[in-house]
């Protein structure tokens, strides 16, 4: 190998190369004075709308930590990269962060497909990723910490609320056509059937990304909902498609009292960019609302507005997830006394940190966290009015108990199991082949 | 009674002397039911609010209806300093407030000084019912009709009495019919067989979802070989009635689908018509066409920000403004880039794609990556409810008309103006036109600006139905090219026919195939069609077409 290179380049060039390499190492050694934290959120492209805010949140949290004196006596340094809403680029950028910048942890990704694309890289290089968005579950990696909601922390409680409090009998499961809605709706359908809802009372509908012509679908929902039984729409419609959807509902005269829509992807940030009139009264299920009145939350909102220098900016659920995830990571590093991934992965399990909305989040052995579940009605100022909430925190469940194939599977990263995909029946660690 | 009047007088006197709501409300013994109800609406808990609302409707004060309406519309606020309920109207950044309980003008208040009274869906439902009951005596017949419709859903005894009274004095035919319907449906549940049969026969002429549900429930098998309705004669009559209504429903649904298709087609035509000029007439593959629409949509947003109090006017102003802005942008693109690339379609494609990325990121930097909110004027929201089964949404309706207007205007420009003549001449035979003294360079620039301007106008329409954000253009660019190619390059009528037929085909497929598959099927059809007729529906004839 060495011979080949020296033949090709000649000795002079090789010397130059070695010198350059030595310099890189030297600069690497200098950089050891700080602990680097990777931020992997899209700043351009389709997802920039949601992810830019999270990049800013991370910078705010890192600034704050540095003001408190940093971590392990060193300053934290944010390394921001832009994967540009391009899924393969997420993997490349993750590799760059881990090998070139040697970051201690990465905070990033939004869509499930971007996380799936980063997964092999982060496992191969044994990094740490904090993923802050609600997702479909059915995954638990040694190297990923899921600080957003699993289906049992968002979708299932929302359906329970509709079923028990609003006495909903017919269900429309509407979603954008990709992995998160498909898996979530599969779990919800199984859950509803287990609760005795018959097949003809469930309508499932998928639409392409950014769908804007909702006329026929809303007309169908109206028809489906006019059969005399209370009907609700459970919406996993993503991003941009929501506005025309709610507009069409409003225009066709479907009001929140007749057919409420409960959404899992509509938060304060999304509401701040749209005309909220047609959405008033519809519901959303999250683990955090900006409107929740606690001193911690007020302080967080205040800090955010000061940092971003804009009084109009809002806070949302994934921001809280990063806030919790980052602070848990800080605690774990302090506990372990090092940023070494293996030590941190071990130390972080069981770490607790208070939620902004009250209660305490705890990192569970399955790498998910415990969260309260809130259901709110959208008000016309773009905020939520909490109408229901769980009285204690709910533990995140990586593998849904309502799907037959994942029912016996559990994730537990503590010995003796130490596995993200452990079958309690066959006593085997299988599937994703985690080490 | 005397005591009550007395207390009201004291209450009013105190109100005049001491305009502090909370002080007055806390005085025990001098509150009447109305004042108490008003106070209750303002208190913290939702349960109390609900009781307060019911009490307010009960109190029968002429102000009750105003307060309930304000609450439903989100105009009822609480003064933070005094706790008094006020009805607030946004006025130039501040709020003009009036005392809720007596309508007294309290001047202006800053947004920070008042807090909105929140309500939940439960309360909203309750409010609608109560407002319905109170609105039954309204002057306006359509308000009465709306009130009756609101009361149709499981009416209680009190509602029925109110309706009976109203029916006796009602003069408006539509309102009377709506009330009759409620009683006919009630008759279905009576014990008298002849009354039931009579009701069933009468119900044949009503297009009501209520009736269809009721009849379907009667004809439901009960699982033991029988039916929910035991009497066979009644079942037969119910079947006949249901069949009559169902036949009409079928027609309504067909009409609705055609309307949906036309309105989707209108959006497609609007998006494609600018491209029909730049691509169709000039042969320039302009990948930045979608971004020119995006510029039009953002222009609408900016104008709305400048004129926050007159939504309707801002939309009308946005049309020429968007045309100008996009036309100027188009002119700049043509002069700065495309004119160097005529006859090199691949390079043009790449260069304009680059322009589209620059425009997108530019908008992202200026307006932030978040979508901007463009409000819809009230005359463009809601729908024209023809009956329970057929309603046409206003925004789609106006966009359909707007599309036809834009198309006609463009056609007139091409047919009747000097620019139009020159455009057609250059498109037919560039060299000959040049030989005749037509400045082809300038004509190219103007044609491109015209097409771009039309794209901007389309952006105004799109801002009313979809998101105004950096990605707006990308969502429509493929559809635009599809329509132009399908219609036949260089033919405006082709674009119109292609847009509408693709829209209708899509909407007829959607209920059977789902939105995703419908779109795929339409694309597959177009691919096959282009194989057979590469020049589209209406190919351009003549020598130029061969070149």
Descriptive account of the structure:
The complex is a heterodimer of chains A (435) and B (547). Helix content of chain A is 39%, strand content 19%. Chain A is of the alpha/beta class. Chain A has a domain at 155-263: Response regulator (Rossmann fold, 3-Layer(aba) Sandwich). A seven-stranded mixed sheet of chain A has the order 7-6-8-9-10-14-15, with helices on both faces. Chain A has a five-stranded parallel sheet with strand order 2-1-3-4-5, sandwiched between helices. A three-stranded antiparallel sheet of chain A has the order 17-18-19, with no helix packed on it. The longest helix of chain A has 30 residues, at 2-31. In chain B, the strands form two sheets. In chain B, strands 4-3-2-1-5 form a five-stranded antiparallel sheet. Chain B has a two-stranded antiparallel sheet with strand order 6-7. Chain B is flat, with a radius of gyration of 31 Å. In chain B, 41% of the residues are buried. Mean pLDDT of chain B is 82; it is low at 1-5, 7-30 and 543-547. At the A-B interface, helix 2, strand 7, helix 7 and helix 8 of A face helix 6, helix 11, helix 12, helix 16 and helix 21 of B.
């Amino acid at each position: 190998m060495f011979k080949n290179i020296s033949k090709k380049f000649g000795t002079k060039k090789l010397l130059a190369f070695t010198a350059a390499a030595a310099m890189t190492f030297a600069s690497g050694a200098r950089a050891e004075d700080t602990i680097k934290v990777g931020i992997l959120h899209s700043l351009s492209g389709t997802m920039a709308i949601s992810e830019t805010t999270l990049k800013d949140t991370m910078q705010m949290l890192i600034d704050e930590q540095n003001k408190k004196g940093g971590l392990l006596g060193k300053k934290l340094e944010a390394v921001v990269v832009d994967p540009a809403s391009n899924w393969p680029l997420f993997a490349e950028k993750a590799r760059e962060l881990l090998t070139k910048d040697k970051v201690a942890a990465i905070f990033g990704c939004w869509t499930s497909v971007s996380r799936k694309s980063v997964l092999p890289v982060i496992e191969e290089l044994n990094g740490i990723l904090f993923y802050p968005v609600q997702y479909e579950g059915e995954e638990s990696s040694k190297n990923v910490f899921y600080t957003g909601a699993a289906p049992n922390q968002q979708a299932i409680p929302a359906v329970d609320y509709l079923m028990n409090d609003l006495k909903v009998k017919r269900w429309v499961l509407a979603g954008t056509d990709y992995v998160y809605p498909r898996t979530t709706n599969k779990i919800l359908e199984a859950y509803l059937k287990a609760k005795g809802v018959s097949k003809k009372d469930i309508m499932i509908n998928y639409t392409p990304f950014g769908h804007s012509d909702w006329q026929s679908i809303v007309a169908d929902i109206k028809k489906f909902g006019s059969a005399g039984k209370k009907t609700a729409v459970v919406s996993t419609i993503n991003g941009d498609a929501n506005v025309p959807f709610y507009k069409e509902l409003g225009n066709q005269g479907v009001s929140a009292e007749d057919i409420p829509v409960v959404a899992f992807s509509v938060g304060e940030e999304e509401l701040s960019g749209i005309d909220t009139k047609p959405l008033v009264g519809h519901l959303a299920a999250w683990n955090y609302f900006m409107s929740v009145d606690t001193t911690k939350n007020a302080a967080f909102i205040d800090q955010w507005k000061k940092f971003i220098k804009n009084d109009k900016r809002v806070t949302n659920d994934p921001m809280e997830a990063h806030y919790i995830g980052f602070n848990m990571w800080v605690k774990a590093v302090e506990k372990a006394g090092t940023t070494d991934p293996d030590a941190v992965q071990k130390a972080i399990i069981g770490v607790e940190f208070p939620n902004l909305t009250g209660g305490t989040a705890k990192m569970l052995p399955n790498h998910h966290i415990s969260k309260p579940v809130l259901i709110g009605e959208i008000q016309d100022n773009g905020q939520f009015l909490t109408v229901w909430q769980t009285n204690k925190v709910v533990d995140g469940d990586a593998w849904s108990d309502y799907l037959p194939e994942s029912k016996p599977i559990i994730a537990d990263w503590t010995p003796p199991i130490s596995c993200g995909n452990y079958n309690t029946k066959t006593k085997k660690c299988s599937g994703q082949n985690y080490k | 009674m005397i005591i009550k009047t007395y207390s009201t007088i004291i209450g009013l006197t105190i109100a005049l002397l001491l305009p502090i709501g909370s002080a007055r409300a806390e005085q025990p013994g001098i509150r009447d039911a109305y004042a108490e109800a008003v106070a209750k609406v303002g208190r913290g808990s939702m349960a109390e609010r609900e009781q307060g609302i019911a009490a307010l409707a009960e109190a029968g004060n002429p102000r009750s209806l105003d307060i309930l309406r304000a609450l439903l519309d989100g105009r009822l606020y609480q003064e933070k300093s005094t706790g008094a309920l006020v009805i607030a109207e946004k006025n130039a950044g501040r709020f003009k407030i009036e005392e809720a309980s007596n309508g007294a003008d309290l001047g202006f208040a800053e947004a920070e000084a008042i807090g909105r009274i929140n309500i939940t869906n439960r309360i909203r439902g309750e409010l609608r019912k109560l407002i319905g009951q109170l609105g039954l005596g309204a002057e306006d017949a359509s308000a009465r009709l709306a009130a009756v419709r609101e009361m149709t859903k499981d009416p209680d005894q009190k509602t029925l009495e109110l309706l009976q009274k109203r029916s006796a004095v009602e003069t408006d035919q539509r309102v009377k019919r709506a009330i009759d319907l409620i009683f006919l449906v009630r008759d279905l549940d009576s014990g008298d067989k002849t009354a039931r049969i009579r009701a069933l026969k009468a119900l044949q002429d009503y297009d009501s979802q209520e009736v269809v549900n009721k009849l379907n429930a009667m004809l439901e098998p009960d699982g033991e070989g029988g039916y929910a309705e035991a009497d066979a004669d009644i079942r037969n009559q119910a079947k006949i009635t249901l069949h009559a209504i169902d036949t009409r429903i079928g027609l309504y649904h067909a009409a609705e689908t055609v309307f949906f298709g036309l309105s989707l087609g209108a959006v497609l035509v609007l998006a494609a018509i600018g491209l029909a000029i730049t691509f169709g007439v000039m042969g320039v593959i302009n990948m930045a066409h979608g971004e020119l629409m995006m510029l039009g949509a953002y222009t609408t947003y900016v104008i709305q920000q400048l004129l926050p109090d007159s939504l309707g006017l801002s939309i009308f102003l946005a049309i020429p403004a968007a045309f100008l802005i996009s036309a100027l942008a188009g002119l700049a693109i043509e002069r700065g880039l495309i004119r160097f690339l005529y006859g090199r379609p691949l390079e043009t494609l790449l260069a304009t794609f680059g322009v589209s990325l620059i425009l997108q990121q530019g908008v992202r930097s200026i307006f932030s990556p978040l979508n901007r909110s463009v409000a819809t004027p009230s005359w463009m929201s809601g729908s024209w409810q023809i009956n329970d089964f057929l309603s046409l949404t206003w925004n789609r309706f106006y966009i359909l008309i707007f599309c036809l207007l834009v198309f006609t205007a463009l056609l007139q420009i091409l047919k009747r103006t000097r620019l139009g003549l020159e455009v057609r001449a250059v498109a037919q035979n560039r060299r000959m036109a040049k030989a005749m003294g037509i400045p082809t360079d300038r004509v190219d620039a103007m044609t491109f600006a015209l097409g771009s301007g039309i794209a901007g106008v389309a952006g105004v329409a799109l801002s009313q139905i979809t998101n105004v954000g950096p990605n707006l253009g990308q969502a429509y660019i493929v559809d635009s090219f599809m329509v132009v190619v399908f219609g036949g390059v260089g033919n405006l009528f082709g674009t119109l026919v292609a847009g509408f037929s693709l829209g209708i085909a899509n909407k007829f497929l959607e209920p059977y195939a789902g939105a995703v598959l419908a779109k795929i099927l339409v694309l597959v059809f177009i691919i096959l069609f282009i194989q057979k007729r590469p020049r589209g529906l209406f190919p351009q004839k003549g020598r130029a077409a061969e070149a």
